[in-house]
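Hey team,

Filing this mostly as a record. A colleague (T.K.) asked me to run one chain through the structure pipeline before their review meeting, and I want the input and output archived in the tracker in case anyone asks later how it was produced. No errors, nothing strange. Just documentation.

Input sequence:
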Amino acid sequence: MSFSLEVLGSRLTWTWRRRTTWRSTARTPPSQTGGPSSPSSPSSMMNQYREEEEEELFITVDHPESHVTAIETFITYRVVTKTSRSDFDCSEFEVRRRYQDFLWLRSTLEERHPTLIVHPLPEKFVMKGMVERFNDDFIETRRRALQRFLDKIRDHPLLRGSPSLNVFLTAQDLAPHRKQTLSLLSRWGGTVKMLSQSLRGVRSRPEEFSLMQDYVEQLSSKICSVDKVSQRIVREQREYVEELQQYSAPYKTQSCTRHLSSTLIPVLHDYLLCADTLKAVMKRRDNIQAEYESKREAMERRGDQEGEEEEEEEVQALQEKVEVCNSSLQEDWSRWRSSMRTDLKTALLSTAENNVQHYEKCLAVWETFLLSQREEGSEQKEEDVP
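Output structure:
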């Protein structure tokens, strides 16, 4: 009994300390920490959340509702969370979120973790294959995309423990948090813009990041080609079905088209957006390195002057920040590539299996038809024999 009480007390103490740390971090603006917060090292953050990975977190996006006001029309989605994680006050939450709320979550995650790969959101207004913004197909396609976005955040070893995700999943009114974060993001965005204008670019980018950028360019080109071919197949199959329907009863062979539209094309489109995300992440990494190189060169040109010690500390801090960002991106890149290959492989295999089943059914129908024609021919010949 004494051992159980001791373990329980240690667990409660650990939980309280972690909650206190997260809440203080969430309330500390970037202006007090010198910009967006970043982990001291990826390995330390991985250890911090390793125990959380053993705890469950289930998120469901469903029940879209249309809202019409005098100013705008928008859709909200129910987000249901069930969890056993200790950083949540309850085991189940239910909130309603609109697209702008998802956008807020993604922006805050990028602001806090500039060199981590945050899964992209679907475009705000235009999606391929959709004509009307609020028809049922568009709403369902967007719901699935928002579900994939939260699933990717939940499965990420670092982002899943973000205070912003906790707020997004639990706060009934997200408006105060959005206002506070947007003001911080606007200040940080202005700083980055001024910095990018004054920097001359990276002088010595590590080769692995140049190779990474080349990989992303090639990946984007190949996925774009596959996406165009898939879109063309869907269009041609729909036209073919519409033509057949003019000459016969309702033609029910749209399973291939439906499967492409619901399974393969969304994954391809997601990773086209991921390519843009990766380019933005690498650009932020380059900006951080360029800032370090600029400060170091300025210090070397001035030589021995007043304030040299403070300047050396600043340059050293920037160097450590570059190393942390490089390490973070390297680890996240490996994880992202593995996830990307799994997603694309699953979607392509599923599409291939669906096509095989579809054409097996078509073959069976034709074999039945031909057999019936042979039998009718045989019966006709027997009748013709005197």
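Quick notes for T.K.: The first strand starts at residue 57 and ends at 68. The domain at 202-302+310-377 is CATH 1.20.1270.60 (Substrate Binding Domain Of Dnak; Chain:A; Domain 2).
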